[in-house]
Design goal:
Elements: E1 6-10, H1 11-25, E2 29-30, H2 35-39, H3 43-52, E3 58-60, H4 63-71, E4 78-80, H5 89-94, E5 98-101, H6 107-116, E6 121-126, H7 141-150, E7 154-160, H8 173-186, E8 197-201, H9 203-208, E9 216-217, H10 230-236, E10 246-251, E11 254-258, E12 263-264, E13 270-271, E14 276-281, E15 298-301, E16 304-309, E17 317-320, E18 333-340, E19 343-345, H11 347-354, H12 358-368, E20 370-374
Parallel strand pairs: 1-20, 2-9, 3-4, 4-5, 5-6, 6-7, 7-8, 8-9
Antiparallel strand pairs: 1-10, 10-18, 11-14, 12-13, 14-17, 15-16, 16-17, 18-19
Helix pairs in contact: 11-12
The structure holds pyridoxal-5'-phosphate (PLP).
């Protein structure tokens, strides 16, 4: 991590996005997903901000993250979505985290650990209603519920599932998963589960799937300012729009004047065709500014777009500032992600250049660089 490169997170954008999600949620409770260090935005800061706005619970991937949130003073339920296995049960119970059970095999030991800690553990069951990744299959659901009811020190507080393609507004799959979830959990009233919390909607489910809001919604990407279907989502959204919360800025460290016919950097991927002004940036793939962006990305200097030229290396990137129409100097701000003046480069645009999705861009940039919260 060098000190030229800075991730800046806008607190007001996070608050704004929380309120957009709350509006879309109707009366449903909100469980912000803050895994992957808040999608690169800083788990603890984000959780505190969302807690102040009324978040009902938080979702993390690992027990370790839940322990950090508890140490930071977060008192809401914290659901551990991944890795509720033998090794982590004691940590989960001692920190008062909520295990999401994806496999009934873990239940006897969870019950024993809860007993040893003299507590009752409220758990959520993850149902595989069509995601096809993890969870209890619908055919095994009632058996799992009965297995839990036979064990001491365990209580079922919630039932959840996850959508595999709710970001695709045209997909029929989402309705099938919703139907399967409702059909499977519908029978649970007979088992005394009518008061447990049903939740299914990620950002796509929240915005695009009528009827998926249920008792609680689990937005992630939307809270950080992006639509699950990327630029299309932004284009088709009704205002007020989500506000991207992350900026990634660096500084020019050198400006060079080169004649025509000079080849630049590793593999000589770019050759000047005219007398050129080339600015050197102290950022590279080590900072998540991946090599695939070579000769492809753009950055903002003085509120204008300029192209990345040549190969991005571990710690250096070159941009062609010849057309900028003014002098640039070492020390001046360069925006890799975010806005400057009237121009904006979004994580969706960078994701297109990287052939991925905004989620990956935010995690890479946010978690590989020094980060500060602004406003
Ligand atoms: C990450 C995650 C979410 C949030 O998904 P987004 O598309 O970012 O809104 C919701 N639910 C579960 C189980 C998740 O793992």
């Amino acid at each position: 991590m060098n000190t030229f490169n800075q991730i800046k997170i806008s607190r007001s954008a996070l608050v704004h996005n929380y309120h957009i999600c709350r509006q879309a949620a109707g009366g449903a409770a909100i469980m912000p997903l803050v895994k992957a260090d808040g999608y690169g935005h800083g788990m603890i800061d984000c959780a505190r901000i969302f807690a102040e706005q009324g978040a009902a619970a938080f979702g993390v991937a690992e027990a370790r993250e839940g322990v950090l949130l508890r140490a930071a003073g977060i008192t809401q339920p914290i659901l551990v979505l991944v890795g509720v296995i033998s090794d982590t049960l004691r940590t989960i119970v001692e920190a008062g985290l909520t295990p999401v059970v994806t496999d009934a095999a873990v239940l006897p030991e969870l019950s024993r650990v809860a007993g040893a800690c003299r507590t009752e553990v409220g758990l959520h069951i993850k149902l595989d209603a069509g995601m096809g990744r993890q969870g209890v299959l619908p055919a095994e659901f009632i058996d799992t519920v009965q297995a839990i009811r036979r064990l001491p020190h365990l209580r079922i507080d919630g039932i959840m599932a996850h959508f595999p393609m709710s970001d695709d507004r045209q997909s029929d799959n989402t309705v099938l998963v919703l139907d399967m979830f409702l059909k499977t959990t519908g029978s649970s009233a007979d088992y005394g589960l009518d008061r447990c919390c049903l939740h299914l909607a990620n950002s796509g489910g929240l915005f695009y799937v009528a009827g998926a809001r249920l008792d609680m919604v689990r937005p992630g990407i939307a809270l950080y300012g992006y639509y699950p279907d990327g630029a299309d989502g932004r284009k088709n959204a009704v205002s007020p729009l989500l506000q991207p919360a992350m900026r990634f800025v660096t500084r020019i460290i050198q400006v060079r004047t080169l004649e025509a016919g000079r080849s630049l950097g590793y593999s000589h991927l770019f050759t000047t065709t005219r007398p050129s002004r080339i600015a050197v940036l102290p950022v590279g793939y080590e900072d998540g500014y991946l090599r695939v962006l070579s000769n492809r990305a753009q950055v903002l200097i003085h509120g204008q777009r300029v192209p990345v030229v040549g190969r991005i290396s571990m710690n250096l990137t070159l941009v062609d500032v010849t057309d900028l129409g003014r002098e640039v100097h070492p020390g001046e701000e360069v925006v890799l992600l975010g806005s400057q003046g009237e121009e904006e480069i979004t994580a969706d645009e960078i994701a297109d250049w990287m052939q991925t999705i905004s989620y990956e861009v935010l995690c890479l940039f946010g978690n590989l660089n020094a980060r500060t919260m602004v406003e």
